[in-house]
């Protein structure tokens, strides 16, 4: 799919020959995100078509308690410090962004009066600024009005290095934030910014009140009382919070959307494990919602048989993949293994990489391990089956792998291991300790052995594997072995941050204390150039074409082997209606949740 | 007695210091860091993690960090949790009521079951009652709490639907309903923990009573025509309790430890689950504080045991 194909399809949508939803699905198929597809349509004159949220109650309140179960307990309630999705979700009860992303990739206004666009003149043609109009009459929980000053303050708060806010990635591209009037803010970017809908949108866009945080900017950020007792604009107000255990909230009677929210109180309970959380919703119905059910599908199906609730799966951009090491992990150069100055002893032979790709039985991994929670894929981004891109197919064939290796001169030696020039193919394959991953490793090992490749499996405790400790050689960024497998999450609706993990300037090495994001040390000039082009391209259609190319470049070189596109799985009790989106938090529309009676 | 107490408390200081130093160094050497979750998130620039490490003083040498911790601790400042940025003492205080309620009730239950059963079993060794009690005791301490906990959940929550299996510290009900809800949610964890403890206590009580019951002074008491129940309570049980007190006192800190598993299963917001989540998040200040509290508990309960000895048997004097 290139730029011209994209434009043709957009014309089809405009002419009504192709439905909006179908278009979005096709874009996902070639590795783009739904929000990107939505942006492309919007740019081409097809307005964001946010469906009116499906919401039936005719008055606010009266819904009784809403009980949410988080097996990873929320530990803090300041969205700028949120350590992982559990905290982001909890913040969503109290705080709101200017807009959020729905499942089809439309921007939905929340604290904004309208979505900026070229048509209404709030989006600059040069990509250097965007003007947000804020909703009038919105009040903080303590009665103070919500204004442009609050929005501007959030940018100042986040980018102050002493605040050490985790949201800084979304805000540091802003050069200035200017108050036009009390309800209009103009953001000016440092450079043309195609993904202008990053600051103040979705998970990192939640707005905290200036009047309560202004004294706690920078070094004193930890001391703000409101870190623990949030005062937001959201549908529920603070009652009680026990970090790592529970949150109690009650309905905000002054909420700015009519007839909302439906529930009178919200109880969030944390702790325990995913399986028993699934049980409490699906089997016993003790809770209304359970977050992130990383449970084997087989178990989920059994629990669903209890008839109290259902698992709900949403498309996301998370990808479970295998990386082959481009460098030699077994030779030390300048005090560093897997240095970019070295080359891997046999992955440099494209035949070996191709054979390895053929030996990964993705279909079985999906069928026997992930079930509904993951879809086998050959693309690094996303790939629903019925629109599988013809460019990247996956195949499982031990026969073909054997043939390729044989033709490339890798002959079996006396112990059945293939070798060339006296170098037998022996690999060390590492991943984090986690039941599905260990099963996955076992399946791969079996196929490898049949092709004459010897594998030693290694598994590292997740807390070590995923740590950023520069002194520990077992972390995944060190990559001190031949192959490794893990999941990269795509927390954002735009692939720009996501795809920078294959640029050559992101290579993890001793120099940057292994903080770089290019773990496999894969380098490609064309990729670097295309990436730079994509990150400054303002036409979303051209930009999308460039991202498709980036995906193909990295996948077709066979160093990066995508395996499973994970889905986000939640548990919902029967009768609960919750608008879910894979591009925003689960609770992004908590104001619109209700129970069917 | 006062003198003795003072001496014991002074002796405890260097041992606690030693414990704290070892704990601190072990934790500092352990792999993993509290910002691991931030590491795999593409949106978070590495500088933010660096900034956090510096801000929280994680890159300083171990000894500097230890002395900083020690000095702060002496000032009553327990530090703050890296994960929730809340003061550690606040976190611990929030967790204590649930732990005390569940673990305390379970201990009471264990003693209420173990003492009479152990004594009765020892009075007629190898009788049918003794055999049954022994069998149950064996089964009891052979089954780990995570197994019995799950079993109870499957029976009483899933199949029968009588009891909730998620423990809540913030029950909204008032009056009798509040008591009733609290009772209902505590039944399973208390039973699991209590019976597990009761099983091992029963064995101890039985053997302690067996040791005492054949001694001459018991026979003397009996031959003087004392009432049998009086003989058992005043002469036998009182003396037999000495080894049991040792066991119970020394078990107390491990009971908190044992409760870690139970708290996790039932989602009880107690100290044990705080420790587990802190370990999973590499939240060093919290791990340090909780384990240090455990160390203090060990010292404290040893002292309590020694004082109880003197009360149970005046021949053991305080010196």
From TrEMBL, chain A:
Keywords: Membrane, Signal, Transmembrane, Transmembrane helix, Transport
Keyword Transcription regulation: no
InterPro entries assigned to the protein according to its UniProt record, in alphabetical order: Peptide/Ni-bd, SBP_5, SBP_5_dom, TAT_signal
UniProt record similarity statement: Belongs to the bacterial solute-binding protein 5 family.
GO biological process per UniProt: peptide transport
Protein name, per record: Peptide ABC transporter substrate-binding protein
Sample GO molecular function, one term: peptide transmembrane transporter activity
UniProt key word Membrane: yes
A GO cellular component entry from the record: outer membrane-bounded periplasmic space
Naturally occurring in which organism (per UniProt): Bradyrhizobium oligotrophicum S58
Top-level lineage group: Bacteria
Coiled coil start-end: none
Annotated TM spans: 27-50
Locations listed in the record: Periplasm
Domain Solute-binding protein family: 108-505
SUPFAM superfamilies per UniProt: Periplasmic binding protein-like II (SSF53850)
From TrEMBL, chain B:
Similarity annotation: Belongs to the binding-protein-dependent transport system permease family.
Protein name, UniProt field: Oligopeptide transport system permease protein
Membrane-topology descriptor: Multi-pass membrane protein
Domain ABC transmembrane type-1: 96-305
Chief location category: membrane
Keyword entries, A-Z: Cell membrane, Membrane, Transmembrane, Transmembrane helix, Transport
Phylogenetic placement of the source organism: Bacteria, Pseudomonadati, Pseudomonadota, Alphaproteobacteria, Hyphomicrobiales
Gene Ontology CC entries for this record: plasma membrane
């Amino acid at each position: 799919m290139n730029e011209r194909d994209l434009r043709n399809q957009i014309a089809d949508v405009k002419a009504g020959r192709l439905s909006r939803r179908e278009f979005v699905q096709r874009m996902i198929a070639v590795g783009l995100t739904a929000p990107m597809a939505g942006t492309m349509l919007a740019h081409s004159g097809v307005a964001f078509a946010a469906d009116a949220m499906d919401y039936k109650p005719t008055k606010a309140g009266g819904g009784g308690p809403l009980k949410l179960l988080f097996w990873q307990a929320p530990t803090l309630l300041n969205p700028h410090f949120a350590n992982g999705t559990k905290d982001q979700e909890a913040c969503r009860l109290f705080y709101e962004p200017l807009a959020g992303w729905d499942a089809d990739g439309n921007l939905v206004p929340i604290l904004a009066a309208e979505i900026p666009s070229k048509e209404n003149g709030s989006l600059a043609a040069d990509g250097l600024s965007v003007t947000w109009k804020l909703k009038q009459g919105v009040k903080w929980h303590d009665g103070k009005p919500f204004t442009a000053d609050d929005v501007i303050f959030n940018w100042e708060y986040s980018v102050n290095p002493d605040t050490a806010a985790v949201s800084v990635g979304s805000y540091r591209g802003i050069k200035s934030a200017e108050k036009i009037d009390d309800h209009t803010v103009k953001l000016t970017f440092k450079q043309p910014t195609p993904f202008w809908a990053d600051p103040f949108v979705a998970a990192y866009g939640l707005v905290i009140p200036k009047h309560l945080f202004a004294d706690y900017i920078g070094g004193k950020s930890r001391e703000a009382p409101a870190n623990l007792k949030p005062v937001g604009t959201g549908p529920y107000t603070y009652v009680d919070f026990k970090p790592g255990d529970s949150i109690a909230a009650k309905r905000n009677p002054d909420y700015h959307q009519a007839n909302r929210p439906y529930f009178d109180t919200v109880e969030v309970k944390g702790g325990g494990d995913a399986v028993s959380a699934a049980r409490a919703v699906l089997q016993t119905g003790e809770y209304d919602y359970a977050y992130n059910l990383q449970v084997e599908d087989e178990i989920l199906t059994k629990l669903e048989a209890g008839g109290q609730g259902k698992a709900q799966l949403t498309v996301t951009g998370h990808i479970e993949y295998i990386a082959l090491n481009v460098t030699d992990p077994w030779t030390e150069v300048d005090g560093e293994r897997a240095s970019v100055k070295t080359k891997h002893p046999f992955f440099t032979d494209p035949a070996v990489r191709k054979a390895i790709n053929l030996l990964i039985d993705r279909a079985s991994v999906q069928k026997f391990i992930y079930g509904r929670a993951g879809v086998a894929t050959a693309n690094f981004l996303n790939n629903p089956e019925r629109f599988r891109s013809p460019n990247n197919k996956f195949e499982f064939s031990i026969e073909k792998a054997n043939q390729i290796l044989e033709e490339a001169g890798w002959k079996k030696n006396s112990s059945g291991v293939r070798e060339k020039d006296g170098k037998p193919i022996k690999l060390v394959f590492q991943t984090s300790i986690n039941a599905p991953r260990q099963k996955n490793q076992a399946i791969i090992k079996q196929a490898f052995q049949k092709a004459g490749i010897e594998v030693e499996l290694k598994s590292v405790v997740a807390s070590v594997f995923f740590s950023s400790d520069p002194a520990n050689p077992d972390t995944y960024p060190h990559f001190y072995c031949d192959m490794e497998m893990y999941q990269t999450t795509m927390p954002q609706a735009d692939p720009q941050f996501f795809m920078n993990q294959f640029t050559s300037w992101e290579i993890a090495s001793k120099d940057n204390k292994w903080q770089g994001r290019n773990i496999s040390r894969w380098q490609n000039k064309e990729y670097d150039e295309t990436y730079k082009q994509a990150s400054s391209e303002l036409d979303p259609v051209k930009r999308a074409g460039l991202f498709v190319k980036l995906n193909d470049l990295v996948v077709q070189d066979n160093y990066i082997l995508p395996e499973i596109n994970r889905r986000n799985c939640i548990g919902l009790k029967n009768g609960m209606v919750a608008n879910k989106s894979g591009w925003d938090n689960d609770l992004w529309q908590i104001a619109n949740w209700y129970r069917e009676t | 007695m006062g003198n003795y107490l003072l001496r014991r408390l002074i002796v405890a200081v260097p041992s606690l210091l030693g414990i704290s130093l070892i704990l601190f160094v072990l934790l500092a050497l352990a792999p993993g860091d509290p910002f691991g979750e931030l590491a795999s998130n593409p949106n978070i620039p590495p500088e933010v993690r660096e900034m956090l490490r510096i801000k929280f003083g994680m890159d300083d040498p171990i000894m500097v960090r230890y002395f900083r911790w020690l000095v702060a601790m002496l000032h009553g400042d327990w530090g703050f949790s890296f994960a929730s940025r809340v003061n550690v003492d606040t976190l611990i205080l929030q967790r204590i009521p649930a732990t005390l309620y569940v673990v305390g009730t379970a201990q009471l239950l264990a003693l209420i079951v173990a003492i009479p059963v152990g004594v009765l079993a020892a009075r007629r060794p190898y009788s049918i009652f003794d055999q049954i009690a022994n069998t149950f005791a064996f089964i009891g301490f052979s089954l780990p709490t995570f197994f019995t906990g799950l079993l109870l959940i499957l029976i009483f929550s899933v199949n029968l639907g009588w009891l909730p299996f998620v423990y809540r510290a913030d029950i909204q009900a008032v009056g009798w309903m509040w008591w009733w809800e609290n009772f209902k949610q505590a039944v399973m964890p208390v039973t699991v923990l209590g019976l597990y403890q009761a099983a091992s206590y029963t064995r101890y009580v039985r053997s302690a009573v067996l040791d005492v019951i054949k001694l001459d002074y018991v026979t003397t008491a009996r031959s003087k025509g004392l009432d049998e129940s009086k003989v058992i309570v005043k002469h036998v049980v009182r003396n037999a309790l000495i080894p049991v007190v040792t066991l119970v006192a020394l078990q107390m800190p491990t009971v908190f430890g044992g409760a870690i598993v139970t708290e996790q299963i039932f989602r009880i917001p107690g100290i044990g689950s705080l420790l587990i989540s802190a370990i999973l998040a590499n939240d060093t200040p919290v791990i340090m504080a909780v384990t240090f509290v455990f160390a203090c508990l060990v010292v404290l309960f040893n002292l309590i045991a020694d004082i109880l000895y003197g009360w149970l048997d005046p021949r053991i004097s305080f010196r």
